[in-house]
Amino acid sequence: MGRPAAVVPVARPDAVHAASYTPEELARYEAIVQRYARHVYNIAYRMTGNEADARDLSQEAFLRVYRALRRVEPGAPLESWLYRIVSNLYIDLLRKRPRTRMESLDAVLKTPRGELVREIPDVAADPDLILEREQIDTAIQRALGVLNPELRMVVVLCDIEGFSYEEIATMLRIPLGTVKSRLHRARQVLQELLRPYVEARRRGWE
Amino acid sequence: MDLNHHRVEQLLSAYVDGELTQAEARAVEEHLLDCGACRRAYEDLRATKALLGALPVAEPPAGWWSSLRAPLVPSRSRAGRGGRWLPLRGWRPAWALGALLLILALAAAPLVKGTMDRLHATEIGVDLYVREHALQMSAEPLVDRAYLGLVAGDADLVLVGESPRAGERRP
After folding, report:
1. B94 within a domain of the structure (yes/no)
2. Could you report the predicted ipTM of this complex, rounded to two decimals?
3. Domain A18-96: which topology?
4. pTM recorded for the entire structure
5. For chain B, is the Cβ count within 10 Å smaller at the N or the C terminus?
6. Facing residue for B43 by CB, picked from A67, A190, A202
7. Does some domain include residue B88?
8. Which residues of A fall within a CB distance of 8 Å from B68?
9. How far is B58 from chain A (nearest CA, A)?
10. How would you write the pLDDT of chain B (171 residues) with one tens digit per residue?
């Protein structure tokens, strides 16, 4: 969809040994790190909600880039591929650790009327502190953690990383309509969880 | 394009993202002029998106950047490690022989011990041997003491220097 294939699949998965990379290839790896690392880390952090997992996940993602370096076309846009790796690694992580601390907060209850979520009490704690940036960030991160991972990934890519629906569909290999509906659901949940902050921001506009 | 309230609600999220066709967007805008509830829902969605968009880019922990270059480092250190092992390369047969001897010794130990135990048993007599072991066993926390007592009693011991018990004849 849309993008040229950044990675040409070649039938020799681990043929590239680290020692055999040329200085040009190593420079290319360095360029990829420079260009994408911050985004990869940010996505990983927003998905996992903690530094340790974000670090491991992003390192693993770049290790894969490194191994596949010869199959990466020079200059090709790698977002799609890289962020799909991050997404898949995150799904693997959840599979290995189905009951992580964060997932235990995943209290989305499926009812005939849609998804219900447990209220997080301290979101609305102290109105004086509501405008504290750090507290807002924490509340948003917690709310993201409550979302089902599929919804979370879409919302992170769209609202935090600013990708279009089509780009997200390509990255996650899901239909455009699915991107749309996941975002819609994700925002409904977030809106409820972050009610005081949403209100505060809206009032700021009025 | 004329859209009903429910359909507009469905499209609002995509409208906020600018992902609707021109015709759809225009229809949503028309509806928003008339519908207070949808206007409010739209404002909420916009605020939610803005909150997320205002999140700072997460700051990676110290040492993270260098860890991404780690694949470059192991390739060198792997070579380095090879270098460190190099002097031992000539010793490999000696290492192998040593390991083999160790394995043989470990395998032989129980055999030797078993034989010695059996010799010991014939020396002191079966009954005493059983009793000796039964007494040792009784110190174990999980052992069935009643059964041990039975075994020890059954051994029908005559210890050296012990006077014959009732109903027992000396050979």
Report:
1. no
2. 0.74
3. Rna Polymerase Sigma Factor; Chain: A (1.10.1740)
4. 0.62
5. C
6. A202
7. no
8. 33, 37, 58-59, 62
9. 5
10. 677 888 898 899 999 999 999 999 999 999 999 999 999 999 999 999 999 999 999 989 888 888 888 666 544 444 444 444 444 555 677 888 899 999 999 999 888 888 887 777 776 666 676 777 777 777 777 777 777 776 666 655 544 455 555 555 544
